[in-house]
Amino acid sequence: MKTLSNVDWVWNSGKVFSTLQFTDGTSENRTNDKPPPTLACHDIAHFICGFHQDLEWDYQKEPNHIAEYNAVFVEHLLTEFSYYYYNEYPIDFYDTSLRIFNYMKWFSEDYYVIKVRHPSRKTFLELQKDFFKRIDISILTQHFTSFYNTWIIQDMIQSPNFNINIKMSDKEENKIEEIRPYLLQIERYINAFS
Ligand SMILES: [Zn+2]
């Protein structure tokens, strides 16, 4: 599994051009000519997973169930936070955690049926445990701005028809530290539901 060092991602009304650079010095260009079924910030969530050493992220590597699970988990955690952050609302930890917990349970058990269709045969609780064990909150604080900028435009336009270019680097120094206590608290709540 390769780890990302730099990403140059262009979203052009759903057409996607990405240049991915890896920590082993290799790079790759990827093009997607038609809009994906997922939202723009889902792509950023994949990349955030890709900056980790040990978190499956590559949507092009089959079977990609776990990569999708991880990206969807990051997408939901950061989308919920973006909403509170943008509106300056106090965070409702109970409702937010329950929404994320239920969504990820549905995603793994009913939608992707990972325990049947993926060779790991992992249950939703095993997947959730793996995710929290591997996720690095520092990496999320480091790349939150890339996610947030994409989320804001996507949320305002309410369609894939916008253009944005996001550059991400493992050297990114603009960390949004507010995300740290949020994630720790959400993890605590989600574990309590399990
Ligand atoms: Zn995906």
Structure overview:
By secondary structure, the protein is of the alpha+beta class. The protein has one domain. It contains seven helices and four strands; from the N terminus they run βββααααααβα. The protein has a four-stranded antiparallel beta sheet, covered by helices on one side. The longest helix is centred in the middle third of the chain and has 23 residues, at 65-87. The radius of gyration is 16 Å and the shape is globular. It starts with a strand and ends with a helix. The model has no long low-confidence stretch (mean pLDDT 96).
The beta-strand count equals 4
Name the beta content range: 15-25%
Number of DSSP helical runs: 7
Q: How confident is the prediction overall: mean pLDDT?
A: 96
Radius of gyration: 16 Å
Shape: globular
Classify the secondary structure makeup into a structural class.
alpha+beta
**How many structural domains can be distinguished in the coordinates?**
1
Helix percent band: 40-55%
Low-confidence stretches: none
Order of strands, widest sheet: 3-2-1-4
- What distance lies between the first and last C-alpha atoms, to the nearest angstrom? 29 Å
Concise description?
With 194 residues, the protein is α+β, with helices and mostly antiparallel strands. The chain has helices spanning 40-50, 65-87, 93-111, 114-117, 124-134, 137-157, 179-193, and strands at residues 4-12, 15-22, 27-32, 163-169. The longest helix is centred in the middle third of the chain and has 23 residues, at 65-87.
